[in-house]
Every structure is written in C-alpha cells, then in structure tokens.
Amino acid sequence: EITYARVREFFFHPCRGNIEGKTPKEILKIEVLRWHPDKFDHLIAPKVTAADWERTKEAAGLVARWVTQLM
Fold first, then answer.
1. Cβ atoms 62, 35 nearer than 8 A
2. What is the C-alpha separation between 37 and 14, in angstroms, rounded?
3. Residue 50 has pLDDT above 90, yes or no
4. What pLDDT score was predicted for residue 18?
5. How far apart, in whole angstroms, are the C-alpha atoms of residue 40 and residue 61?
6. CA gap 66, 51 in Å, rounded
7. 59 CB contacts (<8 Å, ≥6 apart)?
C-alpha cells in the first residue's frame, strides 16, 4: 500500500544513492519533476499495460500530491 509516510520515508532514505549530499529541498525539487503528471504519463505510459494504467496513474497522482505537501 502506498501511503504518505512510506513515500516520505522512501524519498529521504539514506540508501538512495542519487540523494547523497543533497538537502531535503533539493531532493523534493527532483521528485516534483519526476512525478509531474505530464512527464510521468509520457515516460511511464508506454511501459504499463492498458489494464493497469488507471491504477498506476492514480497512484502516481497521489505521490505527486504528497511530494508537493512535503515541500
């Protein structure tokens, strides 16, 4: 299950190599761009089956909103 707490924990987890040396604000800026609905739709839609697309898009929308809340 995707929750706000799990998303926050994942974004700031120390084992994520791409966040090393970055401030929380810098991390969130990167994540805002990564989870932006237009970019997500363009990059991820071709990789997801049609049957799973609506559920995937809904989950990505939740993550995008939570990233914004974390800022």
1. no
2. 26
3. yes
4. 82
5. 9
6. 25
7. 2
DSSP 8-state class, residue 59:
H
On whether the CB atoms of residues 35 and 55 are closer than 8 A, the answer is no
Contacts of 64 (CB under 8 A, 6+ apart): 32, 35, 36, 37, 40
Total residue count of the chain as it appears in this document = 71
The single residue listed with the structure tokens 């939570």 is: 66
For the entire predicted model, the pTM comes to 0.81
Contacts of 67 (CB under 8 A, 6+ apart): 7, 11, 28, 31, 32, 35
pLDDT in tens, 6-46: 999 999 998 988 888 899 999 999 999 999 999 999 999 99
How crowded is residue 39: how many other Cβ atoms within 10 Å of its Cβ?
13
The per-type count for the chain, helices as H runs and strands as E runs, is 4, 0
